[in-house]
Amino acid sequence: MKNKNIWLFIIVLIIGILFRFLYLDKTGGLSYDELVSYMQASRQNILSTIFYTFKTDVHMPLYQIFLHLWCKIFSFSDLSLRAFSALCGVISIIFACLAGLELPPPRKTSLFCAGLFAINSFFIYYSQEVRMYSFLTLLATISVLLILKIKNRPENKWNYIWLILISFCLIHTYTIAFIYVVALFASVLFLLIKQKEKNNVLIYSAITLIITCLPVIIFLTLNQSKYTTQINGYYCDWSSLFIVLQNLYTPVLESLANNPPHYMHIFLSTFSVSKLIFIILPILCGLAGIYTAVKKDKVSLVILAPAVIFFIAEIIAFMITNFKILPRYAIISMPALLIITAYGFSILTEYKKLKYYLIPGIFIIVNISYLLFAPNSAYKMPRVGFRPLAEFINQSDLQNSDFILVWNRKEILDKYLNKKANIISILKDFAYKSEVMLSNEQKFNSMPLDGRKEILYPYFYQNQIPYNTLLLMNYIITNMQPSQKFIITTTSYFDDFDKVKFKQLVETNYKSTSLNDLLTIKSLIDIKEICDINLKFVSKKEIAPYVIRIYSK
After folding, report:
1. Pairing of strands 403-406, 422-425
2. What is the extent of the structural domain holding 305?
3. DSSP secondary structure letters along 112-171
4. DSSP letter string, 253-279
5. Higher per-residue confidence, 463 vs 33
6. pTM of this prediction?
7. Given 380, 398, 428, which residue is the final one in a domain?
8. pLDDT over threshold 70, residue 502
9. Quick check: 123 and 164 in contact, CB under 8 A?
10. Count of structural domains, the chain
11. What pLDDT score does 232 carry?
């Protein structure tokens, strides 16, 4: 790089750093998924982290190990936890720049690569999230760099060693990354055959990788039911394909938690100038970049191949299994797509005509403008975390023996509560344990979400309290001591329902309401009814978006 290019890269890097570290310490604290990562990484040692992750997650524990080591040095505060993801995001910009240096014209392409990574809203969002996705983005970016290095310098054996290491890290971070890794090795093999290079080193590399990954293969084989019997409320239709493109290329992020029902129908029926500018235009510009790169240099197809094959595998899984296409599940594919887009932009600007500058120009201006001025841009987005709720409960004279009912995972309050209470989950301990769920469990495992909901419709419509719920609540209340508290925590959305409103929801909005929401509302109504009859109501308190109801014996 010349001095001018170095200074431009430094400016781009600073922009990327600012977008990732500004507003990093979210006032809401850690969200549900982030708390899962915290609980996994905060074990006493690395072995405990590994075993706890295997117990509580469907993914391999490498990210949690790195997060554990990071926090042992810098603390387990919310800011420190998020800073690890932010650092991975910044390093991804640097490796994207290095990948650009392997493509012609190197100086310009490297700056485009760094620039697109620096202002990518999806990468920025997950650079502020205590989850594996920013770390996964970094690994996938390095994998693209290695393809390019092997293409340009196939005789350098260190590139193959690094390929083994990065592939190992990918597989031990993301359960289904093996699909990407197989496609990665196939792409490199194709390049070597095309260049008539000896590929013995690659074969040895593949064998080494298989041997080192044998423990993972054995674990996945022995625990395959863990990955095929997941009951979740995620929604997915073909709109998800557009949502992935939207999150890759535009600053308007969608489906960060779950896919909205019938997104394309809603998108088109509420179409506006704003959507044209901030969603449609960036997508068209991004696709034009890829088209230009592929048309100019067919090697772009080889670089794109692992990402495309991985995404096709996700589509097939969606069609024949209960797998749901969510943008974050496809993030491993995005670095390659963005690097080739940057390559296409670099080629366009070589023509030195104004009309060719418009495509990258519009793309960059739209993304930066939204990041700077939109109140809900990626780095400004709050997290619906549990710190305010825990602090609220802490102010309610909580005692060690009190019961707290949460609507999802039991661990959501552990980081912030100052007492050791008995925590119960509406979903895990009540909703999933009702007779109708247990009696249909085997059937549900091989059934799509709509089929499950069809079977459960009478259960929701009749709205009778399940025997298992009565049994568990009777046991809890019987064993409570005088003045002992039973605290129900939920959101204002869930708390607003009673039997009449829930029946109306089932009659009018059943298909568009997620299964988990239906289960949660049903069990919450049942539990509140039992508490109103058998316990003394103390108070109801609200701190948006949370509501707590306090009962005592």
Report:
1. parallel
2. 3-380
3. HHHHHHHT-HHHHHHTTSSSTHHHHHHHHHHHHHHHHHHHH-TT-HHHHHHHHHHHHHHH
4. ---SSSPPTTHHHHHHHT--HHHIIII
5. 33
6. 0.90
7. 380
8. yes
9. no
10. 2
11. 55
